[in-house]
Write a structure and sequence with these properties.
The chain is mostly helical. The protein is 47% helix and 0% strand. It has a domain at 20-28 and 40-56. The chain has helices at 12-27, 41-54. The radius of gyration is 14 Å and the shape is elongated.
Length: 64
């Protein structure tokens, strides 16, 4: 068995919460914007998505 460092994909049940968190992270939202109940698995998936989304945060580019 090869030793790989593959990223763990979210389970299909929590994929939507992860996706919403990822998009929120890209927009620059904070953990306080989490729409799910505290300590639920959806909330944890959302936070994981948020943290991953922050690594690729969107920026505004203005041209004059």
């Amino acid at each position: 068995m090869p030793d790989t460092d593959a990223k763990v994909a979210p389970t299909p049940r929590y994929a939507e919460a992860y996706r919403k968190g990822y998009l929120a992270g890209r927009r620059g939202c904070t953990g306080a914007d989490n729409p799910y109940e505290n300590d639920s698995r959806d909330a944890r998936a959302w936070i994981m998505g948020l943290l991953d989304g922050r690594t690729r945060q969107l920026t505004v580019v203005r041209s004059e």
